[in-house]
Amino acid sequence: MREEFYQTYDLLYADYVYNNDIRDRRYYQRNFGLYEYDLVRIIRRAIDYQSNDRRVRPDAKYFLLVNFHNMIVRPLLEYRPFRNPERIYGDDPLELQVAIENDIKTIIDRTNEEADKDEEISGHAMMKAIDTLWPQLRTTKFEIWG
């Protein structure tokens, strides 16, 4: 990966949700909505935690963040029955959070196992891992897309 794109993905990932400036937090809460903002923060924390001691490149982190947000969280929030705050997470308020955290751990674990010892984990490696892990991922139970 070219160095300038490495840095670009690092900035995109860093800028997606977290910023210490309270004005930016208000911006994201206003533009995402409170529940969506909370779920995106859950995704981001899970990625940060699972990739903390691993060689996960910024493009791989951004790939997971954007895909979990836009392909799982947003469709659930757009679907009418989930607009009721009590129903956003399903019958169990922690069900979606646990599914997201588990899937991110599973994906990062798999890519880490398959990577060479000194190799950084790329977005492409994440994509391949998701393909092979598809039947095991907990978020697929929401049947958003197949």
Number of helices: 6
Count of all domains: 1
**What separation lies between the terminal Cα atoms?**
30 Å
Shape label: globular
Number of strands: 0
Low-confidence runs of at least 5 consecutive residues: none
Describe this structure as you would to a colleague:
The chain is mainly alpha-helical. It has one domain (3-142). Helix content is 65%, strand content 0%. It contains six helices and no strands. α3 packs antiparallel against α4, α3 runs parallel beside α5 (95-114) and α4 crosses α6 (123-133). 25% of the residues are buried. The mean pLDDT is 82.
Features:
65% helix, mainly alpha, 146 residues
List the helices and strands and how they pair.
Elements: H1 3-16, H2 22-32, H3 34-51, H4 58-78, H5 95-114, H6 123-133
